[in-house]
Amino acid sequence: MVPEEVSGESGLVVALVSGSHFINHMYLVILPPILTVLTGSFAVGLGALGVAMGVQSLVNTACLLPYGYLSDTRSRTLVLAACLGLGTLGVAIVAAAPSFAWLVVGQAVVGLGVAAHHPVHFPLLSDATPESYRGRAFSVHGFAGSLGFAAAPAVITGVLAAGYSWRVALGLLAGVGAVYGLLATLALHFLVDGSVTRPALVEGDTPAAGASGAGAADAGAADRARAALSSFRERVGELTDSPAIVALAALALVSSTAAWGVTSYAAVFLENGYGVSQSVANLALTGMFVASAVMILVGGTLADVVAPGPVMVASYALVALVVGVLASGILPALAAVGAVVLIGGVRSPSAPARSTLADRISGRADLGQNFAAITVGIMLGSAVAPTVFGVVIERAGYRTAFLLIAAIALLALGLTVWVLRRYGATFAGSEGMATPGDD
After folding, report:
1. How many CB atoms lie within 10 A of CB 178?
2. Phi and psi (nearest 5°) for 129?
3. Count of alpha carbons within 13 angstroms of residue 175, beta-carbon side
4. Quick one: residue 432, left, alpha or beta (phi over 0 = left, psi -120 to 50 = alpha)?
5. Sign of torsion, CA 291 292 296 299?
């Protein structure tokens, strides 16, 4: 039976946001399953394709704080619609790309869309769910995202196996996203309370009393634009007054670099380093995300019931160990496939634990910007990893690249221990602070 505290509208918001997470994560991994195919289609190397993936992440990163501001001060329904609409358009452009340059353009548009998903998802989840279940709400959200990661390589592999091109596969993903985006936007607009979807507007949004006529309307619009820009600058500046959020963002950068290194190149490492077929390698990638989906639920429950810190420490330690063994090249091919799947299971519990820490030290008015700041770290990692590791693979080989990934996971472990020691009192002292309805 669903507990009364999380039934009704809370359940609907979790479902809608989780579905959006599924779609956005599909869009984030449309290239890794077909890197080998794309090198032939566009006559480019892994380094160039790494740059294409990095462009998506850089655009994504640049838009995160503006989307966080809009999520905190304007309509979250509108932000979600932009997220799903632009992401879908970008995938469609990639699917139809006549040249490598157009593929890069499509990736940039994908980044412009998916940039909005964390800044709008986490505030919606946090305002719609009670604190005692928020870690589990975050883990359901993460579960759906992991399934989205898993779905993309599975769908692409199935379409290719059926004799169709990668363009048809990406077009199918874009079609699914377009339908879901329309339905989710309508549901959020008509079925969810405005206190969740429309946070308080910033001062200056209402024209001054007595203003009338086109000139007054233009002046009012200019005043609102100036006020909004000033408010955005102030909110970005406030991030420096929250060193714990900055520390979590730095941790997200390091851990994301390791995670996206594996995500981007695990399939081609299995193909070219272990002699696994493309279809089996893509299925291993799918298995990695399925394992991630299952274990992220465990991570969310442990974050609520035990504590977020130990979950994060154990997760990063196991990632470093398993990636290091995979990089050694000593595994049989079947065991290497299993190691890739295992990486997904051991890395995912850290995400809801980190989100729980961020939520504890956030008020209601800064949720979007705080999660946007942490997502800046995540997306900078996803921008750096494909480009850097693609170049390392071309110059030094797969084993060197994956040993570097293992070392970065160890760095994430060390940084986690430091963050918990440095800001542990802040996280503990803020527990219970961020409850729905607080200003």
Report:
1. 18
2. -125, 150
3. 7
4. left
5. positive
Q: What mean pLDDT comes out for the span 353-357? A: 83
Q: What is the dihedral of CA 104, 105, 107, 108, to 10 degrees?
A: 120
Among residues 23, 348, 3, the alpha carbon closest in space to that of 155 is found at 23
pTM beyond cutoff 0.85: no
**pLDDT of residue 363 exceeding 70:** no
**The two structure tokens encoding residue 353:** 């634990």
The structure tokens listed for 264 are 């981007």
**In this structure, are residues 267 and 32 in contact, taking their beta carbons and an 8 Å threshold?**
yes
CA torsion sign for 311, 316, 321, 322 is: positive
Indicate the range of 108-112, 233-237, 244-248, 250-254 predicted with least confidence.
233-237
Q: Which domains does the chain have, with CATH numbers?
A: 7-197+241-429 (1.20.1250.20)
Token pair 């980044």 in the structure block, residue: 111
Could you give the CA distance from residue 367 to residue 253 in angstroms, rounded to a whole number?
19
Give me Rg for the CA atoms of the chain. 21
pLDDT in tens, 268-301: 999 999 999 988 998 999 899 889 888 888 887 8
> How many Cβ atoms are within 10 Å of 284's Cβ, its own excluded?
25
Handedness of CA 395, 398, 401, 404 (dihedral sign): negative
pLDDT digits (tens, 9 = 90+) for 157-196: 999 999 999 999 999 999 999 999 999 999 888 887 776 6
Mean local confidence (pLDDT), 370-390 = 83
